[in-house]
Design a protein that fits this description.
By secondary structure, this protein is of the alpha/beta class. Helix content is about 45%, strand content about 10%. β11 and β12 form a beta hairpin. α1 crosses α6 and α8 packs parallel to α9. The N and C termini lie far apart (about 60 Å). The relative contact order is 0.12.
């Protein structure tokens, strides 16, 4: 066992902290259910955390903590297909924005493109707006919302993600069902970078039903987690990951939320960090509007489209040039999907019409499913597939 660190590897102390959170996961779960203690708990030093939680396991955990094998942990990270960074270094760049957290994650495990994290390193200026950092990176925007989002909420989240990505802003969310996944889909359709922050290990999708979206995120962005590979998602992991989502973004946008939505936890974290909080209004009769309307009442910015969010993120006169989102789709789609999308735009909007052009039926069905996942087409009545309307630069 080595106390040192390979040139590209996270340090032993940080890897040990990540291991400890996983080892204490069940204890944290019980405390979270009973008293919701996460805000102070995750900031405790290792020994204090063991003393607070371990109970009869205390001595065994202290021995395991003392004998922790960092090299074995690094091998597990590599075997899972991940890279990692800690606050002291690693294979990928640790985002500076996370250092603002009093309980900053010791390690970030990453599946996907390491350069995606570098794009998240834009700092908010003194006025609360995002802006390019000294290296020219655009500010990131978090888009979160209801898991059981309405069709209105899903399309709004997709449109926001699409428009922001087309403008070059990274989109951060939690890959949950509903608005979170829709925001990732929109960002992918807009040809931009998106980062999913997961409650469990970064090497596998959560929920499992979002496997295809997870693979697309890994290909064009990144999935990250503070938990080591092999860690199952627990309930306490979701508010814990919400603090990371909020810290990575200059602006946090909430799209649909009930009065007790987890998205409001993300907004609270963003507010505490001095970041801009925004919300999308909805129908006054819908329970899914209660949380967003409460945020607006309490001072959150009201936004209705990507242009509003760009103004908040980049400040007056600082909005980056917006690439037309349809051009972004043409640029990023593989050739076969690009041709399929072009044919849909030209009016070949049924499976029969697309097959009539000579394509195999299986290729058409698979391609339409992929375009639908990316948010670039939507199914309509009569078996038609329609290109999604893209936001335009204002």
């Amino acid at each position: 066992m080595s106390d040192g660190r390979p040139a590209a590897g996270p340090c032993r102390g940080c890897l040990r902290r990540a291991w400890l959170l996983a080892a204490l996961g069940g204890h944290i779960e019980r405390r979270h259910v009973e008293r919701d203690p996460l805000r102070g708990l995750l900031a405790l030093p290792d020994h204090a955390l063991i003393d607070a939680l371990a109970g009869p396991r205390r001595e065994a955990l202290l021995r395991a903590h003392e004998g922790f094998d960092a090299d074995a942990a690094r091998r597990r990270i590599g075997a899972a297909g991940l890279t990692a960074a800690c606050v002291h270094g690693g294979e990928v760049r640790y985002p500076e924005r996370l250092r603002r957290l009093p309980d900053a994650p010791a390690v970030l495990h990453l599946a996907g493109r390491g350069e995606a994290l570098a794009l998240l390193d834009a700092a908010a200026d003194a006025g609360g707006h995002g802006g390019p950092d000294p290296e020219g990176a655009p500010p990131a925007v978090a888009i979160v919302g209801a898991r059981r989002a309405s069709p209105y909420g899903l399309e709004t989240a997709r449109a926001l993600g699409r428009g922001l990505a087309a403008a070059g802003l990274p989109v951060v969310s939690g890959m949950a069902l509903g608005a979170d996944s829709a925001a990732h889909e929109g960002a992918l359709a807009g040809g931009g970078t998106t980062v999913a922050v997961l409650a469990g290990g970064a090497e596998r999708p959560y929920p499992a039903s979002k496997g295809r979206l997870y693979r697309q995120i890994r290909r064009y962005g990144a999935a990250i987690s503070e938990m080591p590979p092999g860690t199952a998602a627990r309930r306490w992991g979701f508010p814990a990951r919400n603090r990371i989502i909020a810290a990575l973004a200059a602006v946090t946008v909430v799209v649909e939320a009930t009065e007790r939505s987890g998205s409001l936890i993300t907004a609270d974290f963003a507010h505490d960090l001095g970041a801009t909080v925004a919300a999308v209004p909805g129908p006054v009769s819908s329970p899914l509007s209660a949380g967003t309307h409460a945020l607006i009442r309490d001072g959150a910015a009201l936004v209705t489209d990507a242009g509003d969010v760009l103004d908040l993120a980049c400040g007056p006169g600082g909005r980056p040039p917006v690439e037309d989102a349809e051009a972004a789709v043409r640029r990023t789609l593989p050739p076969a999907l690009r041709k399929l999308h072009e044919d849909l735009v030209r009016g070949q909007d049924t499976v029969a019409a697309l097959v009539d052009g000579g394509r195999p039926l299986t290729d058409v069905l698979t391609g339409l499913a992929e375009l639908e996942l990316l948010g670039t087409v939507a199914r309509a009545a009569g078996g038609r597939y329609l290109p999604v309307a893209y936001p335009r630069a204002r």
